Structure formats: C-alpha cells, structure tokens
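Support request, priority: normal
Reporter: lab tech (M.K.)
Component: structure prediction queue

Hi team, I submitted a job for Lipoprotein-anchoring transpeptidase ErfK/SrfK from Lentzea atacamensis yesterday, and the status page still shows it as pending. I've pasted the exact input below so you can check whether something in the sequence is tripping the parser. The sequence length should be 379 residues. Please let me know if I need to resubmit or if it's stuck on your end.
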Amino acid sequence: MKRTLVALVAGLTLLTGCSSVVAGSPNSDTSKPDAKVTLSPADGTKDVQVTSQVQVTVVDGTIESVALKSAEGKDVKGTLTEDKSGWTTAEPLGYGKTYSYSGKAVGANGKPVELKGSFTTVAPGSQTRATLWPGDNQTVGVAAPIMVKFEAPVQDKATVEKALKVTNSANVTGSWAWLNAQEVHYRPEKYWPANTQIKVEAKLYGVNYGGGAFGKADVTSEFTIGRNQVVKIDNPTHQLVVLRDGQQVASYPASFGKDADPELTTPNGTFVVMSKHDTFSFDNPRYGYTNVVKKWAVRFSNHGEFIHENNDNAANIGKNNTSHGCANLLEADAKAYFDSAMVGDPVEVTGSITTLPAQFDWYDWQIPWDQWKSKSAVK
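Reply from support: The job had stalled in the queue. We restarted it manually and it finished. Here are the results:
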C-alpha cells in the first residue's frame, strides 16, 4: 500500500546514478545508526530522461517529508511507501527542466537528514508528434490496419517500435511494418476476427527518436472490429459480390475498368475501404473530365478506385467494363452497398490484366505476410 505525499521546501537533486546524504543532531542516540539517504538521480545529474522514475530511499531511518519541484515551483506527484522508507515519482517529468528535492529524513538514532539537491532533464532538439488510427470507440472492418503517423521522419525506428503495444480480445498476433520513415502500420497475418476489441498503446513521450528528436506525447486508442464483410470483384463477371461471414448476401451488376487498358482497368489486389461519401466529384483532366459528381462513393484505393453510382453508364453495367478503374453500380445498388460498407472492409479484386504495385496508401494487404514482417525494425 502506498500513499501520495508532496511536501515542504525546494532543494534536492537526482542523478542518473545515485547520491547519499548523512546528517546529525546534538540530541541523537549515538548507539543507533544514522539514516542513509539515496537520491536517484543524484545531485547535479544532467540530461535525465523524462520517463525516469525519481526515487528517494532511506536505510536505518524514515522519510519525514519529501518534495520534488520544478523551477516554476510545481510539485511532482509521488508516492511514499507505507513504512516511509522510500518515495517514487508517479508522473513523468518535463523536457529541459531543473528539478529540486527538499524534505527531511530521520535516522533510527533521531538525527535529521536534510534532503537537498537538483538535476536537469534532457532538452530535445525537437519534439515529434504522432497520430493514431483507428481512434477511440470506432468500429472498423476486418482489414483495418492500425496506423501510427509521425510529423517528421524517425531515425531510430526500432526504439520507437518497441514503445508500441497492441492487445486484442481474440489474442491474434500481428506485426508492425514501416511503410516509410514517417509511418508504421500493424496488421495480423489474416483479417481480424469479427467483433474483436483492440487496444493500442503508443507510449512515445520521452522516447528518443534519434537525431535529437524525442516523442512529444503518448497516444492510445481502444476500438472494435465489426462484422466480417468482404467485397469480391472478378473483372470478367461484371458482378460486385458482397460476402458477410463467408456467405454471399448481395451480387450487384457492375461495370469495372476497361479490360484491355492497363492504365484504366480495375487492378488486381486486396484493398481496404478508406472512406465513404454521399457525393464525390471525380476529376481526371488527362481523360477529359472534371467535376463529374457521383453518388454513394466508397473509396478503396488512393490510386483512385471507388465503388459508386453511375446511372449515366447504365447501358454497360452488368455487361461491359467501360469505366476508368472504378466499379460503377446502378443508383439503388450503389446506395444499398454504401449503407452496408464500413471503413476497413477488404475489397478483393481479381481477373484484371494489371496488378497494382504496393505503393499507394493502405496497401497493407498487397504485401505477403513474410515480406510484411520483414518491414519491422525490431528483429
């Protein structure tokens, strides 16, 4: 059992090593030992990591009072052991700050020992912010990757990756993979099981990213994997098939990308639903159209592929592949699919003359599992 204690005057220093202080009183009992106080970090220590636990320990005595204060006079929270032999900080320190100990210990012989000293924490050259997706309380599809993005390149990827933790109710294991120096994703070997609860902890505050950069803040998230829904597109069939829990629940006539043009076909690959839009303006000046607004648009690739309504192409839907890579549906079918779709759903495309290279965002499932694991910085 511990209790929080913050008390008294300023003054006491912590080191990356430790320091000891012994003091006396004229009314002491010389038959008993002096208190031996150890401060860690020790007095005068510089460049202390902000995640370091500051500790005051006493042998042959007890702590009567102890405080750790910043230069601005703010107390650092800490806990005192029940036997009053130790005190430990209960919150992280700030970057580039000087902290001072103060307080008193009393030896078994009654002699007081003043706690006094100071130390300084590391001052980063820069602090790098990270963002995490999915966010708290979201429900996403079974192919949703976990994404941590950094506002600046990370040099020490292994150290950063070790600060990332994923736990889930299905006990499914996965792997982190660095897609570039500013983005690392996590996924399992196969799709997430439906209804899995997932918790992500990115304990990045105080982490040394290398090159003088440190983590600015921790980020965490708890979210849910929804029902298992998979879209299958086999280009020659002119049908968009929806499977739920492995059973077909819908098959919609469709017109996919042009079969004979590698630039315009709907490419092979396993993609992920990225966003949903009631209406979306399609622009491609290269092919002579701008501001073509379509309804019920579901993006599944940053290469430019969507599933959307295109009643203007009704004559070809279910018969010919005539789009520029998107899956065109009749309006009623597009709305029905749109309503069932969830960000994170997989879209599996086959039967095309083109296979899209793994170079557009959310391409996690286009990379074979062994290759994916090799992209981890922790070996």
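The chain has three helices and 29 strands. The radius of gyration is 30 Å. Let us know if anything else looks off. Ticket resolved.
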